[in-house]
Amino acid sequence: MAPHIEIIGRDRCRLGESPVWDPVLKRIFWVDARAPAIWSLDPETGDQTSLSAPDMVGSIVLGEPGQLVAGLRHEVCRVDFAAGVFTPLTRPDAILAAERLNDGKTDRAGRFVTGSQHHADGGTPEGRLFRFDRGGICEVLEAGVEISNSICFSPSGDRLYFADSLRQAIWTYAYDLETGQVGPRETLIDTAPLGSAPDGATVDAEGRLWVALVQSGQIACIAPDGKLERLIDCPIPFPSCPAFGGERLDVLYVTAISDSGGRLKTDHPDGGRLFAIEGLGVQGIAETRCRL
């Protein structure tokens, strides 16, 4: 049976990204990086609200119940969504003015792993992949990055997935869940033959990656060994990031882009709206709450 796809977001985001399901509130949260805001939707009632962010916001993860943790342009903040309060927690060392935090996820031990993007204008890109631990401890896991994306973790937490989108490949690393240290970088899949850079990604309970192919307008399902298992055509251009949610974690929520401020722009009337894919026959896994 073909999956059922429905556009459910009420508003068009300029740069929708980073959906995350809160199983306590039973709401899907996501961000608009360019018109800086965090959005929230109850899929059962259709109730949708937003909170303006004080700066560009690249990603959000679950914090303590009732809270989120957000990577803004140059710092990581705790967010009390109901109260509308952003509280700074930490920031990367010596972050560049032209560098900003982008995609991010929580590892299975509660650390915040987020990457930055840095457009080099012909020079060497200086974006990085960071791991934040309690106490504001920050370690660089990868350097020389232009656009950090596709960050997610295997179900057991022993593999980290990551991409520099403009290199059109998803990488994987052995990940020590106890220490947060990474092993050598390996290439999981080259996405150039699929006609797109990889954008955001998530994993299901069987360890398969679900990746937004932003340029081709598709979601790819990739096995842990790098084999392409499935391609799903999206109803609107520029899908940007998927996340599993719903009561049984069997709905794939996907954000989209209407105007990235760069090369990705569409006049499609539903461009930038959140959509949901049901009937995939798979389940996701609950995201770990961040313990910064």
How helix-rich are the residues, as a percent range?
under 10%
CATH homology group:
TolB, C-terminal domain
Distance between the termini: 42 Å
Name of the CATH first level: Mainly Beta
Shape: globular
* Overall average residue pLDDT: 96
- Sequence of secondary-structure elements: EEEEEEEEEEEEEEEEEEEEEEEE
Q: Which structural class matches the secondary elements?
A: mainly beta
Radius of gyration: 17 Å
CATH topology: Neuraminidase
Which blocks of ≥5 consecutive residues have pLDDT under 50?
A: none
The major sheet is characterized as: 4 strands, antiparallel
Give the number of helices.
Answer: 0
Proportion in β-strands: over 45%
Number of domains as seen in the coordinates: 1
The count of DSSP E runs of length 2 or more, i.e. the number of strands, is 24
* CATH architectural label: 6 Propeller
Order of strands across the main sheet: 1-24-23-22
Verbal overview:
- The protein has 292 residues and is mainly β.
- It has one domain (4-278): 6 Propeller (Neuraminidase).
- 0% of the residues lie in helices and 48% in strands.
- The chain has strands at 4-7, 16-22, 27-32, 37-41, 48-52, 57-62, 67-72, 76-80, 85-90, 99-106, 112-118, 127-132, 138-145, 148-153, 159-164, 169-174, 186-190, 198-203, 209-213, 218-222, 228-233, 239-245, 251-256, 275-278.
- It has a four-stranded antiparallel β-sheet with strand order 1-24-23-22, with no helix packed on it. Strands 2-3-4-5 form a four-stranded antiparallel β-sheet, with no helix packed on it. Strands 6-7-8-9 form a four-stranded antiparallel β-sheet, with no helix packed on it.
- Strand 7 and strand 8 (76-80) form a beta hairpin.
- It is globular and about 45 Å long.
- The model has no long low-confidence stretch (mean pLDDT 96).
